């Protein structure tokens, strides 16, 4: 069974071209050929991946609406292409895989999410920086090269689930300045003080204990923290379990339930817009929020603009969205839905 699962992880998980750039409306599936039969079989699998990314759920509850969507998945395609991907295995061998990359129409997929009644994981997702430390009995090493196949598998799973991830990039001098004892201990605060992101950081401490790999996870994300342990005879499987659990935790804290989705309207006043460039930046920021469907200008005073925002979910999520960004700050006067622009 483990060999079968290993084959599944190696062959069927999507790969993000850039680790921290997750394409939410595209799915990626291994195919044997570029023939029509293989493509037709792969497209529903790619659509399932997209629904997983958008909802944050590992399992899709079956319903007639989901069945109909999968039966007609090819009609939802915006485009598709093929690419070859190099895959590493634990024994060091490298194989080349052919993958179908299917891009779906956003508006049509959003309708399916609503019809199925799925929660919606908000699309503003900070990348989680992964610090994985291996204790080999002699030293504790950050992301050893010989486990490259395992790191690739972690990236695959994160991309399949819609979670952006990144790795710390340290030169030799910087690596010497990091106290690996504190990293091994799971002290996320220590890394945040040294410049690691406070809104997305995980420390994974791993070592062999008898026949199994034992892992300890310390996750910091958007002001919340979690810790847990897991183990497996294969390092890659233990990491796979942990990445899934990490995604479950982060998604659960940032999803909008089906009952809270729908049209809402809220008026927002933003101050400190003293230049045309400030106004343009602020307007572009508002229009690009996944929570915002449309932006209307109600009026303006010197340095202040009054907006009316059409939302696709409850207005209570708006302030949370602003807090996760670095563009707007709550007004010093403390008034609701009044903000100040940050340059």
Structure keywords:
disordered N terminus, single chain, 6-stranded mixed beta sheet, 5-stranded mixed beta sheet, 16 strands, alpha+beta, 33% strand, 343 residues
Element-level helix/strand string: HEHHEEHEEEHEHHHEEEHEEHEEHEE
Question: Whole-Å distance between the termini?
Answer: 55 Å
Tally of strands: 16
Q: Please state roughly what percent of the residues sit in beta strands, choosing from under 5%, 5-15%, 15-25%, 25-35%, 35-45% or over 45%.
A: 25-35%
Percent range for helical residues? 25-40%
Mean pLDDT: 89
Tally of helical runs: 11
What shape does the CA trace take? globular
Description:
- This protein has 343 residues and is α+β, with helices and mostly antiparallel strands.
- The protein is built from eleven helices and 16 strands.
- Strands 5, 6, 7, 8, 9 and 10 form a six-stranded mixed sheet that branches. A five-stranded mixed sheet has the order 13-14-12-16-15, covered by helices on one side.
- Helix 5 packs parallel to helix 9.
- The protein is globular, with a radius of gyration of 22 Å.
- It starts with a helix and ends with a strand.
- The N terminus is likely disordered.
């Amino acid at each position: 069974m483990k060999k079968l699962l290993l084959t599944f992880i190696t062959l069927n998980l999507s790969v993000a071209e850039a680790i921290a750039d997750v394409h939410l409306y595209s799915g990626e599936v291994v195919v044997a050929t570029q023939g029509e039969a293989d493509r037709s079989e792969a497209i529903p699998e790619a659509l399932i991946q997209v629904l997983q990314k958008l909802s944050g759920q590992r399992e899709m509850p079956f319903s007639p609406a989901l069945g109909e969507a999968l039966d007609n998945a090819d009609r939802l395609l915006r485009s598709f292409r093929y690419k070859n991907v190099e895959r590493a295995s634990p024994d060091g061998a490298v194989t080349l895989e052919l993958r179908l990359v299917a891009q779906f129409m956003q508006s049509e997929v959003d309708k399916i999410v609503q019809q199925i009644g799925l929660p919606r994981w908000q699309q503003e997702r900070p990348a989680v920086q992964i610090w994985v430390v291996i204790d080999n009995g002699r030293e504790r090493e950050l992301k050893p090269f010989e486990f490259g196949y395992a790191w690739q598998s972690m990236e695959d799973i994160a991309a399949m689930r819609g979670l952006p991830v990144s790795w710390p990039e340290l030169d030799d001098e910087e690596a010497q300045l990091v106290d690996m004892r504190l990293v091994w201990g799971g002290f996320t605060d220590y890394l945040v003080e040294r410049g690691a992101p406070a809104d997305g950081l995980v420390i994974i401490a791993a070592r062999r204990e008898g026949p199994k790999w034992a892992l300890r996870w310390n996750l910091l994300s958007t002001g919340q923290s979690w810790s847990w342990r897991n183990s497996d005879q294969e390092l890659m499987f233990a990491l796979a379990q942990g990445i899934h659990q990490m995604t479950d935790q982060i998604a659960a804290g940032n999803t909008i339930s089906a009952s809270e989705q729908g049209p809402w309207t809220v008026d927002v006043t933003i101050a400190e817009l003293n230049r045309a460039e400030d106004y343009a930046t602020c307007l572009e920021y508002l229009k690009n929020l996944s929570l915002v469907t449309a932006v209307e200008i109600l009026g303006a005073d010197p340095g202040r603009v009054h907006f009316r925002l059409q939302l696709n979910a409850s207005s209570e999520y708006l302030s949370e969205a602003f807090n996760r960004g670095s563009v707007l700050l709550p007004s010093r006067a403390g008034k609701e839905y009044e903000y100040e622009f940050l340059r």
